[in-house]
Amino acid sequence: MRRVGEGGFVNTTLLLVQGLNGLQFGVLLFLVAAGLTLVFGVMDFINLAHGVQYMVGAYLGASLAALTGSFWLGLLLALPAALVFGLVLEFLVFRHLYDRDHLSQVLATFGVILFLNEGVKVVFGAAPMQMPVPDLLSGGVPLMDGLLYPTYRLAILAAGLATAALLWFLVERTRAGMLVRAGATNAPMVAALGVDIRRLFMLVFGFGAMLAGFAGVMAAPILSVEPGMGDNLLILAFVVIVIGGIGSVRGAFVAALLVGLVETIGRGLMPDLMRLFMDASSARQTGAALASMLVYIVMAAILAFRPAGLFPARA
Amino acid sequence: MAFQESGHKTGTSRRGLLLASGAGVLATPLAAPALHAQAAPIKVGVVAVQTGPQAALGTQLRDGWTMGLRHLNNQLGGRAVETLVIDDELRPDVAVTKVRAALERDRVDFVVGVVFSNILQAIMRPVTESGTFLISSNAGPSTFAGRGCSPFFFNTSYNNDQVHSVMGQAAQDLGYRRVFLMTPNYQAGRDAMAGFKSRFQGEVLDEVYVPLTQLDFSAELARIASLRPDAIFTFMPGGLGVNLVRQYRQAGLANIPFLSTFTVDEATLPAQGEAALGFYSGANWAPNMDNAQNTRFVRDFEAAFNYVPATYAAQSYDTAMLLDSAVRKVGGNLGDKNALRAAIAAADFTSVRGGFRFGANQYPVQDFWLCQVVRRPDGKFQTQTVRRVLEANVDPWAAQCRMPARI
Lengths: 315, 407
Hints:
The complex is a heterodimer of chains A (315) and B (407).
Chain A: H1 12-43, H2 50-68, H3 71-92, H4 102-124, E1 140-144, E2 147-150, H5 151-173, H6 175-192, H7 197-219, H8 229-244, H9 249-274, H10 280-305
Antiparallel strand pairs in A: 1-2
Chain B: H1 2-27, E1 42-47, H2 55-71, E2 75-76, E3 79-86, H3 92-104, E4 110-113, H4 117-129, E5 133-136, E6 153-155, H5 160-173, E7 178-184, H6 187-199, E8 203-210, H7 218-227, E9 231-234, H8 239-250, E10 258-260, H9 269-272, E11 280-283, H10 292-305, H11 311-329, H12 337-346, E12 357-358, E13 364-375, E14 381-393
Parallel strand pairs in B: 1-3, 1-4, 4-5, 5-6, 7-8, 7-9, 9-10, 10-11
Antiparallel strand pairs in B: 2-3, 11-13, 12-13, 13-14
Helix pairs in contact in B: 1-3, 2-10, 2-11, 3-4, 5-6, 11-12
């Protein structure tokens, strides 16, 4: 039997690298979850189609970058395109669902997932697409012997943190943000005070779609751009907003980093941890299985103590 | 799980039967009388996934078949052909329902295609028990190569185990002593590791299983960097492979040889591009194979469909050529099943792989190659043969097959 730590994960440098990986994945999750939590919290609207908006963002980014020949132009054009796409969806589909119950919303937005997953295939083809890493960010920083940490991933981390700061400012320090917070606490009361709640909803929705699209564009150079790419991320995004407290951007931020770290470090550590109790081959499989459960175990544990999540929006 | 599935299957089959009999009643006046059977076109059901994330593979398979028929002037052995593309949606229950409908309502003469093994497992009995020949042009599970072999089942691709063992042998031949293994955590992933280890005799540093839904490989890449293996072996089909290959390159690990199966091929290379340059794969065919049949196939395929064919397309093309030769041998008469079976088993056609013959279990006996990703002068990426690893290889299950001499 091997000792834990022997070329394994319990090694400070490696743990730091894994921590950085976890933070970067968490930041990506945050970009998706932030829009989701706002839409869910403020509008009480379950939008399963949030994941396909992330996918559409990635497709828009990849195709616009290919068209213009520049990552930056692709990114710049994809953002308004994702915003417009979100608003069109809101106008065509979601607007008619706000007053319906959650089941209708789940069914209708699930239909949107199926429709758009096939839709991108009709438009862009079934084969995965790629978006090149911009030259400026194509290098890597040597973090440990033999491993480069891609500069682009650091850029994702920076972009995510900047977005979080911007969101904090918008939500906490502006008038629109105040209305959003008020809406998350009690939407009918905000409407009764004379605020055009429909317009606020549209604004929140469009912004959420743009954030998801932004996450999609940022992820496109490291992940494969393919139909259904948003579906896996959506599940984790829901875990994030449930842990963070529905409607709370601050909660989403903390929970996204937590989920990213647990997911990444757990995957690395679990098999080694299991080796303390069992032989190598069963440790590998049990460890891998446990690692994929870990996020949900953490969620269950947090909900057991704080049923409304870490930072509930509704007091 | 198996019980649930079979229960489900009976449910759908009953419904399929009802539907089919309903359609049969409606179609009776139109049904061609047996007298004219000779003049009627041969009907072939091509099972190829067309929806979902793996649709690109089904598209390759379908287009390979279409290319074959174009070269044959849309005839098999001199008889006109009607192709029915059956989208299995990568769901066994859907596949069974649609294939039953093709058998009972459309009365297809052959069922060919099938990308994924689980779909093949589901449609195997419905097809073979109806006395129809089933020719898999991709899925090659061990189940039907050994004890489960059937006189009505042929395979024109490979047995899954062979492809993984090719990479084990290649690692051995290339002199790698310390190898890191990584596959998704499901049956095919575990089979891949077993297949690799069946021929690799060096040290396996670690075996890592990742969830099938994994997006980010940074944790595993850090682990690889810390272990510094001579090479890694992986099996990451579809989008998993696209993510892994690009992240592997971005992490600066590309100096550690990347051995893989079903991870870098012409279906995923458009999305992997430069990141996959120099990465290894194991296969029974590559677009650069130098024979007249293959040159013509690749040239015309690219002209017609505007992308580089992968093994899915090549094997499907071979299947069309195989059926053409078989129907010609029996003079277009598909009634005598024993004669037809012998004609298929003879495999009297020119394969894009060079030679082609069937073993006793009706799986191919063929060479396997170590392939490497290259950039062609026109800027497109493809795999290219590096060296022959296994010669006239018989799959490890063939000995367990007791094939009846007559149907």
